[in-house]
Amino acid sequence: MKMKFFQTICRQLRSSKGFSVESASPVAFSTSSYSCGRKKKVNPYEEVDQEKYSNLVQSVLSSRGLAHTPESLLEEDALLYGPVIRHKPPKQDEDTRMPQNWFPIFNPERNDKSNASDPSVPLKIPLQRNLIPSVTRVLQQTMTKHQAFWLERWKQRMILELGEDGFKEYTSNIFLQGKQFHEALESILSPQETLKERDENLLKSGYIESVQHILKDVSGVRALESAVQHETLNYIGLLDCVAEYQGKLCVIDWKTSEKPKPLLRNTFDNPLQVVAYMGAVNHDTKYSFQVQCGLIVVAYKDGSPAHPHFMDEELCSQYWAKWLLRLEEYTEKKKNQNIQKPE
């Protein structure tokens, strides 16, 4: 009687939609007591976290015959492997390397007393073009592959949108706007500059409006558009400004941007440029003072408030080490190029 009942259940299960019962060896039932001497075999599927995979099983069964979409595949991957965790890229070797030939950014022969003098006329030393590499050239020639890739990608995208001639005109306008911005700042910060009609128009630009809240904290201007040279490390540069910002003597670098740059890392190699000028000023005999801080000001054409990025002594020292590495890399590249040149 029990055997017939079991066979009836099996037939019902076979006829049920979505279920199949595999043939198995005949099972014999006995009214006698069940033998417990045989060890029960452990089913490995009992250890599976049913709650975790129930949603996945249900989605697979309910979507038979339906095409998968990227969204559904991502959902199934999340159920199988968990959410995607984006790891930070490993730090570059540059963070751990140290310059082979160390040279201090600060001049031990100069002290804070040299900063007490406040000249009425800021220094404006003209830049002498010679064979000594400039700070800008060193940074351009030692650009990382990652930086070069994104710069080239941006260039190609702009050419695709504007065309070759349009891109040249665009870059020319950007350069002209930056030049006019610096000329206007020079008129504002130089006490003996007389404003011309052209300068008055420049003062109404969005860039100048953008830096108004920064200029309120700038005083004691020591140098404007002035050349520097590091005779020991053999490089030159043309700094924008040396002045006090909130009571700290800084090398100030004025930048323009079409995109917001609220963080220092958004300024790319600008911190290296600032510390390169700082080190040169502190060891250039034409300058009698010592600069211990840096400031990068990013101004915007629409007049929105500029972002000031202040660099204290500790931060400047960190970037100075990176600048020395870039300078050594440039020197090594030039040495290899001279070796490869045929006589």
TrEMBL record:
Keywords: DNA damage, DNA repair, Exonuclease, Hydrolase, Mitochondrion, Nuclease
Catalytic residues (UniProt): 240, 253, 255
InterPro entries for the chain: PDDEXK-like_dom_sf (IPR011604), PDDEXK_AddAB-type (IPR038726)
The organism's place on the tree of life at top rank: Eukaryota
Pfam family, one: PDDEXK_1
Residues annotated as domain PD-(D/E)XK endonuclease-like: 197-332
GO MF assignments: single-stranded DNA 5'-3' DNA exonuclease activity
EC code: 3.1.-.-
One example of a Gene Ontology biological process annotation: mitochondrial DNA replication
Location of the protein in the cell: Mitochondrion
One Gene Ontology cellular component: mitochondrion
EC class name: hydrolase
Similarity comment: family membership: Belongs to the MGME1 family.
Function statement: Metal-dependent single-stranded DNA (ssDNA) exonuclease involved in mitochondrial genome maintenance. Has preference for 5'-3' exonuclease activity but is also capable of endoduclease activity on linear substrates. Necessary for maintenance of proper 7S DNA levels. Probably involved in mitochondrial DNA (mtDNA) repair, possibly via the processing of displaced DNA containing Okazaki fragments during RNA-primed DNA synthesis on the lagging strand or via processing of DNA flaps during long-patch base excision repair. Metal-dependent single-stranded DNA (ssDNA) exonuclease involved in mitochondrial genome maintenance. Has preference for 5'-3' exonuclease activity but is also capable of endonuclease activity on linear substrates. Necessary for maintenance of proper 7S DNA levels. Probably involved in mitochondrial DNA (mtDNA) repair, possibly via the processing of displaced DNA containing Okazaki fragments during RNA-primed DNA synthesis on the lagging strand or via processing of DNA flaps during long-patch base excision repair. Specifically binds 5-hydroxymethylcytosine (5hmC)-containing DNA in stem cells.
Protein name in the entry: Mitochondrial genome maintenance exonuclease 1
Organism in which the protein naturally occurs: Cebus imitator (Panamanian white-faced capuchin)
Gene from which the chain derives: MGME1
